[in-house]
Task: structure prediction
Amino acid sequence: MTGAPAHAPTDAPAVIEISKLCTRFGSHVVHSDISFDVRRAEIFALIGGSGSGKSTLLREMILLHRPNSGSIRVLGTDLHGLDDAGALAVRRRCGVMFQKGGLFASLTVRQNVGLPLREHTRLPDALIDGIATSKLDLSGLPADAFDQLPAELSGGMMKRASLARALALDPELLFLDEPTAGLDPVSAGGVDDLVRSLRDLFGLTVVIITHDLDLLWQVADRVAVLADGRVQGTGSMAELAAMDHPAVRPFFSGPRARAAEQQARQQGAASPPQPPSHGGPPWKPR
Ligand code: ADP
Ligand code: MG
Result:
């Protein structure tokens, strides 16, 4: 653990702006009225029960699903009515780690990580391999796994490989869907440091969907709670802990929730947001 996170500046511009979003599948209303903003260099978590629409919301933010109404702006672009070139331009600036990993089974790990570079750039193969290797190093995967097939990896290694692929194109925005689900505590434990360093070193904005209470307490600057088609509350974990709402309470009751909270408070990770000491994220617009 590295102690208290360097929080995103509270006056940073919004990089995701969602307003009055509605999503239905047939007669099943998943999102009835969702609005929230995510600011640059923020680590923003989405929580909510299974089926509350978290993954669907993520898919809408990366143009894989179109909402029935409402608006989504990502990196200053309104996603509604984008043509293919516009959609590609936004997607190129976003890295996504899907809940199920999403690696191609017939390609090695290194080839999987190089794939976005092959699709979006004309870089020579040797350079693509070099970039893929550096992203795999960054994600903490052991080097002897780089040329293995995804099926040969453990769950934790698969998640790291998938994260490396999400970072391949140096995204400004990183989406992580359940990055620690199914991992043993040791593998899951490194993810919080990794996410925090991606934000602190590269100024990445990170949106995490997670049930992992340790991860929430350790890295999330702000958390939005999704239930009954709406955002029921947004705030730091400490702020949500003080909120008496039936959709929020389950995340703060029970022995595991209390242990995660106690550990975070002891480490000072639950202190109020403060501007980063390095004077802002190093991220530069392209
Ligand atoms: P979460 O990630 O919060 O568990 P999801 O966003 O995956 O929830 O799903 C929200 C709801 O929408 C669920 O009831 C799910 O069955 C439904 N849903 C998601 N995708 C589809 C789809 N393509 N077609 C029909 N229903 C869907
Ligand atoms: Mg999901």
Q: What stands out?
A: The chain has nine helices and ten strands. Residues 54-55, 99 surround magnesium ion (ligand 2) (CB under 6 Å). The mean pLDDT is 87. The longest strand covers residues 14-25.
